[in-house]
Amino acid sequence: MKIHEYQAKQILYKYGVRIPKGEVAETPSKAREIAERIGPNVVLKAQVHAGGRGKGGGIKLVSSAQEAEKIAQEMIGMTLFTHQTGPEGKLVKRILVEEALDITRELYVGIVVDRAKEAPVVMASSEGGVEIEKVAAETPELIFKEYVNPAAGFLGFQARNLAFKLGLGGETFKQAVKFILSLYKAFEATDASLAEINPLLITKKGNVLALDAKMNFDDNALPRHPEIKEMRDLDEEDPLEVEASKYNLNYIKLDGNVGCMVNGAGLAMATMDIIMHSGSMPANFLDVGGGVSEEAVKNAFEILVSDQDVKAALINIFGGIVRCDLVANGIVKAAKEIGLKVPMVVRLEGTNVDLGKKILKESGLAFYPAANMKEAAEKVVPLAKQQERS
Ligand code: GDP
Ligand code: MN
Fold it and tell me: Which CATH superfamily includes the segment(s) 21-100?
């Protein structure tokens, strides 16, 4: 789960990470009021789940409370486009109003879980600011790393190593060490999957603060953190993914044009592989699960055809716990109600398969039956390509 910058800063503050003074505003008058208190120089920051706001016009420096109100008027309600928002952009509903700080250096500190090393890794770079991805791609030697032994935890000398490599000294060095240790404490205690500070700011006086903050959390750990779960902003998530989560369907939107409905994650993976092998890309990962009901199949079908990127669909069901006739009934009911909309290849196998096939056939709907996965993939890929052209 992702959260907004202002929420990440609230969490980090509790763990001793130093952040600028600021508050969130949903109206221009509130922005003015905050600026009167902490200004006159403030920075207005659009709160959306996407980075690159600086370049996209989502970060504005102003020098009076009056100007804060005027610019807030323009920002709240605007659609922000950055390289991370996608072509549809993101609606700005609130802005963070923060004291404007003078910047001498912009550094980078981030923590993620390195799956290959099976350990969290704390990364730091003196090349912070807005283009850390470029640094990682072109000059990876400028990103310093400390792996964390999960049993021993992140140790003081590791934080000092990083601060030293960043070229810091004196009071700034001490503050940076404390900052990195506190950031790790927050990361660990909240079951975060990512905690990133970019830029980590060094002020003219040599103070160390988080100018930006991003945190993601492991969804499976959220039951342990009700206060973080509360921070979820459904408006920032893919509407179809939100819809699917209501019905306990595992749905992830992907970039291709072949919609998939399958039961079981393993079968979903195999289905995606065979679609790619046959020359297309899956438009989604939709796993209806093991003990699925007719109702859930119907909801899954609706989600599948609501995605404008789906040009053809492959329904691939292995009836182990679930019966093929139940799945067939769910699909037929949904198709009769909302229409087929795209060509659908259906491959059923397992319990009550003959009954399932009979239900599909007698529905009078134009499904494309397939006897096995290979045949199903070879049928659906040209259908998707054909729809893409027409
Ligand atoms: P992002 O572009 O979405 O990552 O947003 P950031 O919060 O990282 O801000 C982008 C850039 O805006 C920073 O790298 C800074 O250069 C600038 N910026 C943000 N806040 C301030 C501030 O308080 N003072 C000054 N002078 N610049 C700021
Ligand atoms: Mn940033």
Answer: ATP-grasp fold, A domain (3.30.1490.20)
